Amino acid sequence: MSRRRIAVLASGGGSNLQALLDHQHTLGGSRAADVVLVASDRAEAGALERARKAGVSAAQIPADRPRALTRLLDAHEVDLVALAGYLKLVPAEVTRRFAGAMVNVHPSLLPDFGGPGMYGARVHRAVIAAGVRSSGATVHFVDDVYDRGAVLVRLPVPVLAGDDERTLAQRVLRAEHLLFPRVIQALAAGRAPTTALTLPMLDPALNDAENARLVDRALLRRPHSQAVPDDA
Ligand code: GRF
């Protein structure tokens, strides 16, 4: 199967983009997708700089002009779109065009603590204020309502006594970096879970390699969709 062509949309520093680029590099010839475009609504987004360093096309997009975005995606023959800290609502014209082929990473266990205005530190503040025992990362399909598209995979992390928004954000970001590239690889390879999957809780005491092995194992164990044919 030929590799899928991914565009990443990001508004911020782009650490999730970096995690994806690094994971694809590690996978080498077995990667199912390549990042061919990084686009941002903000010219100064760190994500654009990371793209340039990796030799990937970087572009600023006017967030409110669906045709310009569609043209850019078409020009790069994109067939999967990944939102990684992209803070604008993607126009419905674009989400419909990429239905089932556009994912977002969100820093909570959706559907909890999602929706308009729920991004960055606000999410973690709300989680701590609610007194819940776990939070985590969610990768979900994007439709034209913020954070409401079907969930693909959730990776929980514990909320620990004494956590503040900064310590919780760090733990959740670790989960995002493990989950996001792996779900994209699974989706691109036609091995994404067919129903919402919640993985075992990330163990903060383990190192990243150990947690990555557990995530890989849990993702592989599940029933998955059929491979997408070349001409899909
Ligand atoms: C992450 O927490 C992501 O879940 C959220 O925005 C943050 C972006 O981080 N949507 P980065 O730009 O990938 O470093």
Describe the structure.
With about 230 residues, the protein is of the alpha/beta class. Helices cover about 35% and strands about 20% of the residues. It contains seven helices and eight strands. It has helices at about 15-25, 45-55, 65-75, 90-95, 120-130, 165-190, 210-220; strands at about 5-10, 35-40, 55-60, 80-85, 100-105, 135-140, 150-160, 195-200. Strands 3-2-1-4-5-6-7-8 form an eight-stranded mixed β-sheet, with helices on one face. Strand 2, helix 2 (about 45-55) and strand 3 (about 55-60) form a beta-alpha-beta unit. Helix 1 (about 15-25) crosses helix 6 (about 165-190), helix 5 packs across helix 6 (about 165-190) and helix 6 packs across helix 7 (about 210-220). The chain is globular and about 50 Å long. The termini are close together. Mean pLDDT is about 90; it is low at about 225-230. The structure holds 5-O-phosphono-beta-D-ribofuranosylamine. 5-O-phosphono-beta-D-ribofuranosylamine (GRF) binds near residues 10, 14, 106 and 176.
Which characteristics define this entry?
232 residues; alpha/beta; 8-stranded mixed β-sheet; 7 helices; globular; disordered C terminus; binds 5-O-phosphono-beta-D-ribofuranosylamine
Q: Stretches where pLDDT falls below 50 for ≥5 residues?
A: 225-232
User: Which range best describes the helical content: under 10%, 10-25%, 25-40%, 40-55%, 55-70% or over 70%?
Assistant: 25-40%
User: What is the CA-based Rg, rounded?
Assistant: 17 Å
**What gap, in angstroms, lies between the N and C termini?**
11 Å
Quaternary organization: single chain
Bound molecules: 5-O-phosphono-beta-D-ribofuranosylamine
> Main β-sheet: number of strands, strand sense, barrel status?
8 strands, mixed
Strands of the widest sheet, in order across it, are: 3-2-1-4-5-6-7-8
Q: How large is the count of helical segments?
A: 7
- Overall average residue pLDDT: 92
Structure summary, number of beta strands: 8
**Overall body shape:** globular
Order of helices and strands: EHEHEHEHEHEEHEH
| Binned strand content | 15-25%
Structural class by SSE content: alpha/beta
